[in-house]
């Protein structure tokens, strides 16, 4: 039968506001998690990663939070800029490395002027 | 340092044909993974190669195959193309294929099957 497109969650934020993108992962055995940003026509670009022995990690303007109890991952972007507009994917690794990733369906972030 | 290079960027093929896509990883990286990205299924893992050996394979039919050369460059092949194979094919390279290291993606090859 016909394939149905994935329903891509969308998030619109005002420039300068903070953004929070959420992700529920599926494999309780996953121990490595990555957030990727994908702009139109480009491959995914690494943003930040976190290991399962941590619950928070900060980068430049970005913070990843991991809640293993409920298998939830979030990406916080501070002072969102127009260049942050993209699709954001969380990815989990069942093998403890980035060589085989299981991706979430993605969230479309739109930054409003 | 050059990034991950995928060729060609765009490709149009006819149903029933076969296609070969190429990926040159970042210099020094020995692990190459391939992914298929479609609007319907999202990003899905195809297979991963390390030191010329396939280490992991996703849930795709045998029409999808790959290989890796001694210089770590990798190719993937799709035989007997179907309309549903139209997708963006992405390759990612990983420094050692070891623990907790990020994967760097190329820009992908956009395959259209008509």
What would you note in describing this structure?
- The complex is a heterodimer of chains A (113) and B (114).
- Chain A has 113 residues and is mainly beta.
- Chain A contains no helices and ten strands.
- The mean pLDDT of chain A is 90.
- Chain B is built from no helices and eleven strands.
- Chain B has strands spanning 5-7, 10-13, 19-24, 31-38, 42-50, 53-57, 64-68, 74-78, 87-94, 104-105, 109-113.
- In chain B, a hairpin with a 5-residue loop joins β7 (64-68) and β8.
- The radius of gyration of chain B is 13 Å and the shape is globular.
- The A-B interface holds A 3-6, 32, 34, 36, 41-46, 49, 51, 89, 91, 95-106 and B 4, 31, 33, 35, 38-45, 48, 50, 55-56, 58, 84, 90, 92, 94, 97-108.
Mean pLDDT score of chain B: 93
Number of strands of chain A: 10
- How far from one another are the termini of chain B? 37 Å
Unreliable sequence segments of chain B? none
Helix content range of chain A: under 10%
Mean residue pLDDT of chain A: 90
Unreliable stretches covering 5 or more consecutive residues of chain A = none
User: Radius of gyration of chain B in whole Å, from Cα?
Assistant: 13 Å
> Biggest sheet of chain A, in brief?
6 strands, mixed
Number of helices of chain B: 0
Strand-pairing-aware structural class of chain B: mainly beta
Strand content of chain A: over 45%
Characterize the largest beta sheet of chain B: strand count, sense, and whether it forms a barrel: 7 strands, mixed
Give me the Rg of chain A, rounded.
14 Å
Strand element count of chain B: 11
